[in-house]
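Open question from group meeting: does this chain pack into something compact, or does most of it stay loose? Before anyone orders reagents, we agreed to write out a predicted structure and look at it together. Recording both the input and the output here so the notebook holds the full record.
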Amino acid sequence: MNTGRALVLFSAGQDSATCLAWALNRFASIETIGFDYGQRHGVELTQRPVVLAGVAAIKPAWRERLGADHVAEMRGFGALAQSALTAGGDLTEAKRGLPASFVPGRNLAFLSYAAAHAWLREIDVLVTGVCETDYAGYPDCRQGTIDAMAAALSLGLDRPMTIATPLMRLSKAETWALARQEGGEALVSLIRTDTHTCYAGVRETLQPWGYGCGACPACILRRAGWEAYAAQADGEGAPA
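Structure tokens returned:
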């Protein structure tokens, strides 16, 4: 295990919860940071403490390593970088060849805020759940973007800043499998019931893959990943 510290960008979604478990198994001390940017699925903010408490309860070592949580207020950014995710509208309609849910510069802004806080806390590793395999068409989730951002942050802060992306090459099904690898069925169950991914903010009926509207791009991706993961888990004799 790495004896260092890391700051996990944590939204209370499936991907960031998996990344949090991944980091807790590899770093001696973890802090988390989330962002209130006026997202229409603001329910993810209310789920953050629920998921954090659930993760801490899975392993005593995780509870010991999990440190402070922070939420950055970024509603001004969300008002400027409007999309269907912040200003309403059809979540399935493309704009300029990109998904309607694409918030321009969102991950770049998240990483900048996180890096500023990490610099003050003398943390030199940021962990984020971006992925270019199932990245839904977001250009700020690509490896090239992350590499360029890490270089810019390191130069701008005059301190090496590493951005770890455990999910970068994984499909959504493989992300479910990674959760099981890192935290067992307890983590898979927690992600299924307590994390939030649905862009519409729907938390009414629990589906096999979690809560959500079932129709927005985030739900479609999460459901397809769960179904592929569950089929494979069944084939291996593992509980799905």
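Observations to bring back to the group:
Strands lie at 2-9, 27-36, 66-73, 125-127, 162-164, 206-207, 210-211.
The domain at 2-195 is CATH 3.40.50.620 (Rossmann fold).
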